[in-house]
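REQUEST FORM: STRUCTURE PREDICTION
Request ID: SP-0412
Submitted by: Lab K.M.
Chain count: 1
Length (residues): 122
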Amino acid sequence: QVQLVESGGGSVQAGGSLRLSCAASGYTDSSYCMGWFRQAPGKEREGVASIDSGGNTRYADSMKGRFTISRDNAKNTLYLQMNNLKPEDTAMYYCALDWDSRRLWRGDPKYRGQGTQVTVSS
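STATUS: Completed
RESULT:
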Protein backbone atom coordinates (compact mmCIF):
# COMPACT_ATOMS: atom_id res chain seq x y z
CA GLN A 1 0.00 0.00 0.00
CA VAL A 2 1.62 3.20 -1.20
CA GLN A 3 1.30 6.09 1.22
CA LEU A 4 2.26 9.69 0.62
CA VAL A 5 2.19 12.19 3.47
CA GLU A 6 2.81 15.87 2.80
CA SER A 7 3.95 18.53 5.23
CA GLY A 8 5.36 22.03 5.18
CA GLY A 9 2.48 24.09 3.88
CA GLY A 10 1.41 27.31 5.53
CA SER A 11 0.81 30.99 5.10
CA VAL A 12 3.47 33.36 3.82
CA GLN A 13 3.67 36.82 2.34
CA ALA A 14 4.46 37.39 -1.29
CA GLY A 15 8.17 36.98 -1.93
CA GLY A 16 8.53 34.47 0.86
CA SER A 17 9.55 30.82 0.77
CA LEU A 18 8.19 27.47 1.85
CA ARG A 19 9.54 23.94 1.66
CA LEU A 20 7.12 21.11 1.16
CA SER A 21 8.02 17.55 2.08
CA CYS A 22 6.42 14.26 1.12
CA ALA A 23 7.22 11.06 3.00
CA ALA A 24 6.63 8.05 0.79
CA SER A 25 6.28 4.41 1.68
CA GLY A 26 4.87 1.12 0.48
CA TYR A 27 6.36 0.74 -2.99
CA THR A 28 9.14 -1.48 -4.29
CA ASP A 29 9.33 -0.68 -8.00
CA SER A 30 11.83 2.15 -8.36
CA SER A 31 10.95 3.07 -11.96
CA TYR A 32 8.42 5.67 -10.96
CA CYS A 33 7.95 9.38 -11.29
CA MET A 34 7.18 11.57 -8.32
CA GLY A 35 6.03 15.12 -8.28
CA TRP A 36 3.63 17.76 -7.16
CA PHE A 37 0.44 19.15 -8.55
CA ARG A 38 -1.82 21.80 -7.13
CA GLN A 39 -5.41 22.90 -7.18
CA ALA A 40 -6.79 26.29 -6.28
CA PRO A 41 -10.48 26.82 -5.47
CA GLY A 42 -12.54 26.92 -8.63
CA LYS A 43 -9.59 26.00 -10.83
CA GLU A 44 -8.41 22.84 -12.51
CA ARG A 45 -5.56 20.75 -11.22
CA GLU A 46 -2.17 21.95 -12.43
CA GLY A 47 1.10 20.06 -12.62
CA VAL A 48 3.88 21.83 -10.74
CA ALA A 49 7.06 19.76 -10.95
CA SER A 50 8.24 16.19 -11.27
CA ILE A 51 11.35 14.09 -10.89
CA ASP A 52 11.84 10.65 -12.37
CA SER A 53 13.79 7.69 -11.10
CA GLY A 54 16.85 8.92 -12.97
CA GLY A 55 16.72 12.29 -11.25
CA ASN A 56 15.50 14.18 -14.29
CA THR A 57 13.34 17.15 -13.35
CA ARG A 58 10.57 18.99 -15.09
CA TYR A 59 8.78 22.19 -14.13
CA ALA A 60 5.71 24.06 -15.21
CA ASP A 61 6.73 27.26 -16.97
CA SER A 62 5.41 29.57 -14.25
CA MET A 63 7.48 27.75 -11.60
CA LYS A 64 10.81 27.65 -13.42
CA GLY A 65 13.46 29.56 -11.53
CA ARG A 66 11.34 29.76 -8.40
CA PHE A 67 10.62 26.15 -7.44
CA THR A 68 13.08 23.30 -7.01
CA ILE A 69 12.09 19.66 -6.73
CA SER A 70 14.40 17.12 -5.17
CA ARG A 71 14.32 13.74 -3.55
CA ASP A 72 16.25 11.92 -0.85
CA ASN A 73 16.09 8.27 -1.81
CA ALA A 74 17.62 7.16 1.49
CA LYS A 75 14.76 8.82 3.36
CA ASN A 76 12.10 8.10 0.71
CA THR A 77 11.21 11.76 0.84
CA LEU A 78 10.32 14.21 -1.89
CA TYR A 79 10.79 17.94 -1.49
CA LEU A 80 9.58 21.10 -3.18
CA GLN A 81 11.46 24.27 -2.35
CA MET A 82 9.31 27.24 -3.28
CA ASN A 83 10.91 30.69 -3.41
CA ASN A 84 9.58 34.09 -4.42
CA LEU A 85 6.05 32.94 -3.82
CA LYS A 86 3.20 34.86 -5.41
CA PRO A 87 -0.46 35.15 -4.45
CA GLU A 88 -1.35 33.09 -7.51
CA ASP A 89 0.60 30.20 -6.00
CA THR A 90 -2.11 29.88 -3.36
CA ALA A 91 -3.51 26.34 -3.64
CA MET A 92 -3.65 22.90 -2.13
CA TYR A 93 -0.46 21.11 -3.08
CA TYR A 94 -0.48 17.36 -3.56
CA CYS A 95 2.39 14.91 -3.64
CA ALA A 96 2.00 12.35 -6.40
CA LEU A 97 3.55 9.09 -7.55
CA ASP A 98 2.94 7.25 -10.79
CA TRP A 99 4.74 5.12 -13.32
CA ASP A 100 3.14 7.25 -16.03
CA SER A 101 4.26 10.87 -15.70
CA ARG A 102 1.45 12.03 -17.99
CA ARG A 103 -1.13 11.11 -15.36
CA LEU A 104 0.90 12.90 -12.71
CA TRP A 105 1.01 16.07 -14.80
CA ARG A 106 -2.73 15.88 -15.42
CA GLY A 107 -3.27 15.84 -11.67
CA ASP A 108 -4.70 12.33 -11.82
CA PRO A 109 -1.87 10.12 -10.54
CA LYS A 110 -2.21 6.56 -9.39
CA TYR A 111 -1.21 7.64 -5.88
CA ARG A 112 -1.46 11.00 -4.18
CA GLY A 113 -1.31 12.40 -0.67
CA GLN A 114 -3.97 14.29 1.24
CA GLY A 115 -2.50 17.64 0.31
CA THR A 116 -1.01 20.58 2.16
CA GLN A 117 -2.36 24.11 1.89
CA VAL A 118 -0.16 26.96 0.72
CA THR A 119 -1.52 30.48 1.11
CA VAL A 120 0.38 33.50 -0.18
CA SER A 121 -0.83 36.96 0.77
CA SER A 122 0.01 40.14 -1.09
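NOTES: Helices lie at 101-105.
Reviewed by: T.R.
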